[in-house]
Amino acid sequence: MEKYEVHLVINNNRVELNPFVEQYLSKVSLGIVTSLKGIEYVRDIQITDKNGDIFIFVNGEEVSITPFPIKIISSTLRGLVSALKDVNQVENLDVIVKIAK
Fold first, then answer.
1. C-alpha count within 13 angstroms, C-beta hemisphere, residue 74
2. Are 27 and 2 contacting, i.e. CB atoms less than 8 angstroms apart?
3. Residue ranges per domain, the chain?
4. Model's pTM, two decimal places?
5. What does the alpha-carbon distance between residue 52 and residue 75 come to, in Å, rounded to a whole number?
6. Left if phi > 0, otherwise alpha if psi is -120 to 50, otherwise beta: which for 12?
7. Alpha-carbon distance 68 to 10, whole Å?
8. Beta 3-10 vs 92-100: how paired, if at all?
9. 75: helix, strand or coil
């Protein structure tokens, strides 16, 4: 079974995650990047959302994405984190996932 190390930063503040949210966010992030063309092997992910602009790095390499996936990814991540305790307005967020097998 794969183990994940997950960090979430919202509006430049690190958010502590319970085990359920940590696993859920890691699986969602992995699903996002493996759905993109050309992504096969993943050891680390960074997804940054700055006011709706999405930047994705997989294994340290930036992944080019078109406007349609950008909108879906931004909506998905913002919807997910907006349900977390003490999260009000999301201007920017970073999700970092490291996978250890």
1. 17
2. no
3. 3-100
4. 0.90
5. 8
6. left
7. 23
8. antiparallel
9. helix
